[in-house]
Amino acid sequence: MDTATHFVMGLGLAGLSFVDPVVASQPTLAGAVMIATVLASQAPDADTALRLKNNALYIRNHRGITHSLPFLLLWPALITLVIGPVFGFADFQNLSHIAMWSFIGVAVHVFTDLFNTYGTQAARPFTEKWIAWNIIHIFDPFIFGSHAAAIILWISGIVPPAPLFVTLYACIALYYIWRTVVHARLTRNLKNKDIHHSPGERYFVIPTISPTRWNVVKAKPDGSYNIGLLNSGRLEWFKHAVCSTHPAVEHSKSHPDIQAFLYFTSYAVAEVEKVASGYIVRWGDVRYLHRKQFPFVAVLVMDNEYHPLNTYVGWLSSDKLDERFAIDPGSMKL
Q1: Longest Cα pair distance anywhere in the chain, in angstroms?
Q2: Quick one: CA dihedral 258, 300, 283, 5, positive or negative?
């Protein structure tokens, strides 16, 4: 989920902590738990600081080890060791409640991230596989809006926190179940909707911010992709993406920034443009489609002997990329 959603979920878990009678009976402990759950809801994304060095390093590592199984325990331990003394708690009972709710905050963060398209390496150290269930958009209006409304009701004193947030999270759980069932049904029925279906093709249904609109990626046996939209049950294909076989593409794979991009995604295609200075290799992740473009890219500029000159990894539209690298509109696509 996005940072804002993780933040309101941290506050929501603080409200839910009032079901714990020890927390509900001690205002100081309740305050410590609130700080702990908010920190815990953000802690796995501490690797965002890698952006300060470069985007490629961030993309390769974001949602990696900080979302792994060992960090499910490490983050709560660190938070408890910091928050406990700040609020004057040194006894095991109070510290254990801070640790428990910190653990819940971290676990909810990692678990909800599994439902997005970005994915996490939540099974590390057993595997570095990116786990992405493609069920919930990174920003979901219902999840954010319901948390915001519940927090307002809590702060205003209209509804006590325990029943309010028990109700909220029961609804959130049902919402996740509903979205999971819908996603499974849509994926299962896609080949029946696709009149161009051929044996060996695989379908991936990608969530959008709208609950009735889903991006669809069809992986073909030849390594190419068809990209379409499923809108209120109607399937429409509008792009075919094929990875270029130009030698510049193979040379680009040896660059660390391109390697970082390909480490993160298995759904990348490359295109090559010939310019006066050499070649521009543009890798795009077909899962992320916006206005019929792939804005999540890794771009490498090379000279005519395939030596790297410039690079970029991250989110950028085609127009912005052309502007960034001063690409001649008359350049030749290979």
Answers
A1: 72
A2: positive
